[in-house]
Design brief:
The chain is of the alpha+beta class. It has 13 helices and 33 strands. Strand 5, helix 5 and strand 6 form a beta-alpha-beta unit. Helix 7 crosses helix 8. The longest helix has 16 residues. The protein binds guanosine-5'-triphosphate (GTP). Guanosine-5'-triphosphate binds next to helix 1.
């Protein structure tokens, strides 16, 4: 197929605006699935694929469509479409020349619409603005067209309208994909080069890759080389994904195909596969390292599940190259892992997939963000090159005397809200140490507000609070805004004078008193009364910022069974002993396990 007949595109949208439903319609219209078949959301194959013993995440579908007597190959590349998955979106977007920007004609432009629009702009993609759900009685296409115009300068006459549910306007949309999106800017006469946008593992065939071919041709049996390690291999499997595999012998520049080099084959996201003649000097290694924004401790619900959870995490991490996994252990929670995520949604999806795909139940500690510090004498710090250190655990903070500067991660938050909540939203954001940027009119009833916010202030409950103060109407999304200078301290918790490592946190100086009070109060609620009096102190560099006391209490569960039945008494004492096993003991104080998981949550 010549490249002029290829279109590579993706659908991007705010959550629930109908991406999967539209993809189903496109698949029907191109004959991949039968109309009305019980196969809805074909691109969400996780369940299906699990039954076959492999896991596929972002699936592409190569569709044939005949328009004005010419047959086109339309590659629909599925993208998660949220900034949390930016590395996934970015790698799949590098294979696209255009996007369908889908907006619910009833709900209108939402925060995530703004984020995906700017992502498409940054990548110079052709944007096909499309209103969905126009069948809804409350749909208001004119209002949404006004919103698109005032926020993105999109001309109303370029906006298409569809109902993905009813199939209205979908044919016109496919034709717009052909007419408006340019063919891939590639050349088929030079050496073969492809870059890997996804990988998954197949029990029998080894690693399978989704590859976008930048130049040249590829054939079954051809010798190829991985750029990362120069390893030479032979192409064993080649297929179009429709989205079912359709084996092919040959593929050419501009196509998005599945490639596999057999059970010993390699392939990782971001790597490049080239023909053995390809001059190494011409390669610009384009993999940018992933930046993890949120870390959480992951532990098994009970010890017997530890191995199962470990295996599940390992397998999932292979499919989700964006997580980082390191072993972690805590006296309270036992052996576990410290896992880095791109954002909160990513964290959610990861734990959900652990449960759904691997039946592994995980307990997560409250998420925290990484901090960066610059040390005064770099030599003072062991194991680190240079003078900048990323801190993912408060206990890694060196002595404050050795720290020259602190940095914390910030985000640019976008909030779309009805105008009557502007005051409440502003208060919330200022309260979370946010600084406002100029706001924009969405339409006469809605406004788009933007703030620069510390990531640490939004990781725990920002979204829920925003929803509750705006009666559910505001939408929120954010993008990375890098590390910025800050004034931070490490706050420790002492129980009767003994440090409890797992409860140390890093806090901004302006939040010191507040955090100290909140932590000690919460601990007072969570730690049960015991034989000794317990002093809970929040301390920074030896200075106490808050203190609570739990009075002593003698708890004898058998007291009311005086005389009585001996076996019953023994049973009660045994139960009490087992309850204690789930506790972590610090300076003779028993702390329930869930304290460590819940105390940092708001
Ligand atoms: P995520 O995958 O969760 O991001 O959602 P999505 O954007 O893929 O949305 P999805 O296709 O799951 O649709 C969300 C809801 O909107 C579903 O209940 C659909 O049935 C409904 N929906 C999608 N398109 C239309 C439409 O054209 N009209 C109406 N009335 N409902 C629609």
């Amino acid at each position: 197929i010549e490249k002029e007949k290829i279109r590579n595109f993706s659908i991007v949208a705010h959550v629930d605006h109908g991406k999967s439903t539209l993809a189903d319609r496109l698949l029907e219209l191109t004959g991949v699935i039968k109309p009305g078949a019980e196969q809805s959301q074909v691109l969400d194959q996780l369940q299906v694929e699990r039954e076959r013993g492999i896991t596929v995440k972002a699936v592409t579908a190569s569709l044939n469509y005949t328009y004005e007597n010419e047959t086109y190959l339309l590659n629909l590349i599925d993208t998660p479409g949220h900034v949390d998955f930016s590395n996934e979106v970015v790698r799949s977007i590098t294979a696209c020349q255009g996007v369908i920007l889908l907006v619910d004609a009833n709900e209108g432009v939402q925060a995530q619409t703004v984020a995906v629009h700017s992502l498409a702009k940054r990548n110079n993609l052709t944007i096909i603005p499309t209103l969905n759900k126009v069948d809804l009685p409350r749909a208001n296409p004119d209002r949404v067209k006004t919103q698109l115009n005032s926020l993105f300068h999109i001309e109303p006459e370029t906006v298409l309208s569809v109902s993905a549910k009813k199939g209205w306007g979908v044919k016109e949309l496919l034709e717009a994909v052909i007419k408006r999106i340019p063919p891939p800017p590639v050349s088929s006469d030079s050496h073969f080069r492809a870059h890997i946008i996804d990988t998954w593992h197949d029990k029998y065939r080894g690693v399978l890759c989704l590859a976008y071919i930048h130049s040249g041709n590829i054939q079954i049996g051809q010798s190829v080389r991985w750029m990362s390690d120069s390893k030479q291999q032979t192409v064993k499997y080649l297929a179009l994904l429709r989205p079912k595999e359709e084996p092919i012998d040959e593929a050419t520049a501009g196509q998005v195909v599945m490639v596999g080099c057999g059970p010993k084959g390699g392939g990782s996201v971001g790597d490049q596969l080239v023909s053995i003649e390809f001059p190494t000097t011409e390669i610009n290694s384009s993999t940018t390292p992933v930046r993890h924004m949120v870390y959480a401790g992951v532990f098994s619900a009970d010890k017997s599940q530890h191995t199962l959870l470990g295996e599940a995490i390992k397998k999932l991490a292979l499919n989700d190259s964006a997580v980082s996994v390191k072993p972690d252990s805590s006296p309270a929670l036992g052996q576990g892992w410290r896992v880095g995520f791109l954002g909160l949604l990513h964290l959610d999806v990861f734990t959900q997939r652990l449960l759904q795909e691997y039946k592994a139940e995980a307990i997560l500690t409250a998420p925290s963000v990484p901090y960066k510090i610059k040390v005064k004498g770099a030599k003072l710090i062991k194991h680190y090159k240079g003078d900048e250190i990323i801190i993912t655990n408060p206990l890694q903070l060196p002595d404050p005397h050795n720290i020259a500067e602190y940095y914390e991660p910030f985000v640019k938050g976008t909030i779309i809200t009805p105008v009557e909540y502007i005051g409440a939203v502003t208060t919330l954001c200022i309260d979370r140490r946010g600084s406002p940027l100029p706001s924009s009119v969405v339409d006469e009833n809605n406004t788009m507000m933007q703030f620069i916010l510390p990531l640490s202030e939004i990781v725990v409950d920002f979204h829920d609070t925003l929803k509750s103060i705006t009666a559910g109407f505001a939408s929120f999304d954010y993008e990375d805004y890098g590390f910025h200078k800050s004034v931070l301290v490490r706050m420790d918790i002492l129980l009767n004078g003994t440090l409890v490592e797992e409860l140390s946190t890093i806090v901004h100086v302006s939040r010191l008193e507040y955090s100290a009070r909140r932590l000690t109060e919460k601990l007072k609620e969570m730690i049960p009364r015991q034989m000794v009096q317990i002093a809970i102190q929040a301390v920074v560099s030896g200075k106490v910022y808050s203190r609570e006391t739990i009075k002593a209490y003698r708890k004898d569960v058998t007291a009311k069974l005086y005389g009585g039945d001996v076996t019953r008494r023994k049973k009660l004492l045994k139960q009490q002993a087992e309850g204690k096993k789930k506790m972590r003991s610090v300076a003779n104080i028993k702390i329930p396990r869930n304290t460590f998981i819940d105390v940092l949550k708001r």
